[in-house]
Design goal:
Blueprint (H helix, E strand, L loop, with lengths): L3 H15 L3 E4 L4 E6 L9 E4 L6 E7 L2 E9 L3 E6 L5 E12 L17 E9 L9 E8 L7 E3 L6 E8 L8 E6 H9 L6 E9 L6 E15 L3 E4 L13
Parallel strand pairs: 9-11
Antiparallel strand pairs: 1-15, 2-14, 3-6, 4-5, 5-14, 6-13, 7-12, 7-14, 8-9, 8-13, 10-11
């Protein structure tokens, strides 16, 4: 059972989130995003990366509403912009599913093969998908080995990390959890700035192929490096906000 201090913190957070405001946090972790897509796609926007758009919609799956991305020789990201302080720690969890990976793509590290059945981006320090903005790109690859890390061939500020590969888990939901600060340090050799967005991308334009993928249950938890203001998700419940 939470103590009086924990309950006071939750009451204060609930009042602020109800108004869509930021909350001051002193070295304590806070759930910045909890996205289950039950309330639709408010807060997300599409960023076109090609003349053809990827379709992003919600659909029922196993009793839940999930995000469904359909790409037909197209590339467009689906982005949620954020405002967070510089993190001392940051953890993101989500689940995803692909119908099939792009196993015929033999050039995933090259510009002409820069396609994946599913990607999840976290952007740092700048506007999402600006060429100067650094990002971690977690991918479901077709052929690359799980655990492989390399720079995106088009945007050198994007570090690719392969979490799933091939069709061994295709058709099943797979849960992921990442330590964003550690991944950023390993990719860029320094501590990260503030987190500015999360995004999904299903793109098939470079290989003239197609893919359908699902995403759900995004949770981003941030512990600020110093006292700061965290913009909390308007749709949060408070199960994740009481320190255990």
């Amino acid at each position: 059972m939470p103590g009086a201090g924990d309950l006071s913190r939750v009451v204060a957070l609930s009042a602020l989130v109800a108004g869509g405001s930021a909350v001051a946090v002193s070295g304590q972790p806070a759930v910045v995003v909890r996205e289950e897509f039950d309330a639709g796609l408010d807060g997300w926007e599409q960023v076109r990366l090609d003349r053809r758009q990827t379709s992003y919609t919600t659909a029922a799956a196993g009793g839940d509403q999930v995000l469904v991305a359909t790409s037909e020789n197209s590339a467009a990201a689906f982005v949620r912009e954020l405002e967070t302080p510089v993190p001392a720690r940051a953890t993101m969890r989500w689940r995803w599913r692909v119908t099939a990976s792009l196993t015929e793509n033999e050039r995933e590290r090259e510009r002409r093969g820069d396609d994946y059945a599913a990607r999840v981006f976290v952007t740092f320090g700048g506007e999402p998908f600006d060429r100067s903005t650094r990002a971690l790109s977690y991918v479901w690859a077709g052929r690359e080995q799980i655990g492989a890390r390399y720079r995106n061939p088009v945007a050198k500020n994007v570090a690719t990390i392969v979490l799933q590969s091939g069709d061994g888990a295709a058709g099943r939901w797979v849960r992921e959890q990442r330590d964003l600060v550690r991944d950023y340090r390993e990719a860029f050799g320094e501590d990260p700035p503030e987190i500015t967005g999360i995004a999904v991308l299903v793109d098939t334009d470079d290989t003239s192929s197609s893919a359908i993928s699902w995403f759900d249950d995004f949770v981003l938890e941030v512990q600020p490096a110093e006292s700061g203001r965290v913009q909390l998700d308007d749709h949060l419940d408070f199960d994740g906000l009481i320190p255990r």
